[in-house]
Amino acid sequence: MERRFTACIMAAGRGERAGGGEPKQYRQLAGRPVIAWSAETFARHPDCQDMIVVHAPGAAEAAEQALGPLALRVRLVEGGETRHDSVRCAMEAVSAPLVLIHDAARPFISPAMIDRLLAALDHHTGAVPALPLADSIARLDNGRPVPADRAPYRRLQTPQAFHTEALRKAFASHGSASHTDESALAHAAGLDVTLIEGDEMAFKLTFPDDFTRAERLAGGVALTVTGSGFDVHRLAPGEGLTLCGVFIACDLSLVGHSDADAGLHALTDAVLGAAGLGDIGDHFPPSDMRWKGADSALFLTHALTLAREQGLVPVHCDVTLICERPKIGPHKSAMKARLAELTGLAPQRVNVKATTTEKLGFTGRGEGLAAQAVITMRTEI
């Protein structure tokens, strides 16, 4: 049956109980914003037609920055006062036959859970992941605990999956009341909703201790790899050169087939190395005239795309520029910002250094410039 879906990631909450001074969906978790974890999982699923991220009023820029390169695959929608209102806003933009509605604060969803939800929609209007209660429970009676039977109760998780038109009709018929989640709305509307097996890893980040737990677990759901790169270009008289994507006005130029940006070339090789995909010459041979004078940002973007197809995302990068001239110091901040933009990393996860060889060798004699780069990338196992 039809299994194409739109993933709606709800990120309009303030997340104040989690602490940290910023909405929890944008806080860093093992080198990536929380929202990027689930967005990456959806983006890699073959049945995901598109993604919608619902953000708080005025927070579109924060959402886009947190998503990094994934923002190119996402439609941003401004949410409402409550989660119920925000989901209603998202539903107006859903285009696929099925819709999965997910809390941004649940970073560790799995492709297997998504598959179970889609399979359940072959036979039901809605499907919700659920887990049994492990602890004994009690209801309060004037402040005193009264034991209760936990057997009939379940903990509901997200994503919650529905046939799109059925959920739209539920909003039309029963959407005037505010519901805590879509399963409550579906129940009120009389939809056929089934429960599927949930996942303890798909817990919601709510309190500060949840972030501590998530940081520990992040090392268990991800594999970290490292790649290194090195590049050299000859210096010649000229009217300026580009390094790490930043133009430096000076009386020098770099000689090469493309724009000869040694910093980006080294970083591109580092990405390809981490992904086990050869080197820059394999993908952009200097004999190919298509790359004559090309912006080296194209090379880095292509390498990152290839790495992401293998499930790899950048965590940190470090570039070292080795030369006597031009002076790099005044341009390091701009270079760092450009690298953050190209890689989708937070600025604090990017570093640019400069050094000389104390007048020794070809860089010391001013004949050329060298660059070294190291990148750390992470992939879900």
User: Regarding quaternary structure, how should these chains be classified?
Assistant: single chain
Count the E strands.
Answer: 19
- In the predicted model, the low-confidence regions spanning at least 5 consecutive residues are none
Beta percentage is: 25-35%
What is the CATH homology-level superfamily of the largest domain? Spore Coat Polysaccharide Biosynthesis Protein SpsA, Chain A
Rg over CA atoms: 25 Å
Please outline the major beta sheet. Answer: 8 strands, mixed
Outline, from the CA principal axes?
elongated
Structural class: alpha/beta
Number of domains: 2
Q: Given the structure, what is the number of helices?
A: 12
CATH class label of the largest domain: Alpha Beta
- Mean pLDDT comes to 91
Which CATH architecture of the largest domain would you pick? Alpha-Beta Complex
> How far is the first residue's CA from the last residue's CA?
28 Å
Helix content: 25-40%
